[in-house]
Amino acid sequence: MKYASTRGNVAGIGFIDAFMMGLANDGGLLIPEQIPQVSVAQLEQWRTLEYTELVQAIFELYVDGEIPSGELKQLIESSYATFRTPEVTPVQQLKDDLYLLELFHGPTFAFKDVALQFMGQLYSYVATKTGQKINILGATSGDTGASAIAGLRGKEGIKICILHPEGKVSRVQELQMTTVLDDNVLNLSVEGNFDDCQRMIKELFSDIDFKNKHQLAAINSINFIRIMAQTVYYFYAYFRITEPGSTKKINFSVPTGNFGDIFAGYLAKRMGLPIHKLILATNENNILERFINQGVYKPDQFKMTYSPSMDIQVASNFERYLYYVTGENTEQVKSFMQQFAEKGEIVIDSAMLAIVQAEFSAYGVAGELCLQTISKYNEETNYLLDPHSACGVAAAEQCAGQAEITVSLATAHPAKFDEAISLCGIKQTFPDAIAELSNKQQRQTKVDGDLAAITDELITFYG
Ligand SMILES: *Cc1c(COP(=O)(O)O)cnc(C)c1O
What is the reaction catalyzed (predicted)? Predict the structure, then answer.
């Protein structure tokens, strides 16, 4: 399997090189040159696999022999040994036609661990094999940073710097990042919001000289390997709730910010998993809801919400979807992205909008409804949803049709977002790993929200 850019000027890149390149060198995003196809017979063979076996079966299609199977197996087993349940991503039934796919049983209690535990292992593998130094740089709306730091702290030959928007992540998210005191970790607390952090990261990665000089590597979902790792649980969940030969219509409802996790679902569907609809759930930062319902992609005023990990206006993975919805037309992707840079919006025609709407439904969940959903499920089913997962469930209730079954992705543990839970008048008990955080020492560097100030910090840190 080779990888190519959505903008057409990078192609023929192998798996490890795609992993290390992160953002494509032409400013686009990397995608596999062909999406691997999984037949119905193959799907049925995968049905009974354990989680890590399923990971291996799917990754083999993308790694294409670049990592020997035995070594890949070890990487996968070490990655998922850190999870608190052997099922890794268990499925729970909430009511007749609604299931939750719990993705928060990893070390930092959010779904980002599913991909980042593996990427941590893979960076180590590359650093050891090649003797290369690797400097990781990422922006976070809260969970990616915590998860990447957990996966890479103390690792030989690797340094990691994470930008987070000052005061705009939850208390637990901040503590999970800043209480890690290993020398190879730098937390920059940036004045501004997540979009500012993400834009500056993209600028740094687009500066190829800077990227090469400092051996920068990306952990954000601009890295295709993250998407690949997230496709696995769509398959896993599907097998848990269907019987062989099932013709039930299965939707997935996905709380969305950067269009990463839902794009993984789209990729699973394109690989051959019979997903009916992908329901895109947003909060009040609803650029993606407006795109799907109206065909216009245009950022609006940034809002702080109860689900801070989805407080994103410009979704970095959206370009990957544009590539597929244009029929893999790199010229059209380039022209859309240029339009976006110049006019601040992308407008698609009605034929393309029809394709979008055949694949996706969307619903933007207002703050009030998010809290009501948390309270309602807590009372009726005794299940405490975190505010992101509540957006997924609320959108599922709005968008799922009769006789359809929806699997809603539970992307975080409620203990990470007690700010919202306590507004519902609910007092939760915290897992030990979270309760202990507030007694720990913190370290972070405050920095102005401009590229020059951040570049200075990076040069000092990476050396
Ligand atoms: C990152 C995150 C999301 C959004 O995921 P994307 O891949 O950015 O769409 C949703 N919920 C939680 C808890 C997250 O951490």
Answer: O-phospho-L-homoserine + H2O = L-threonine + phosphate
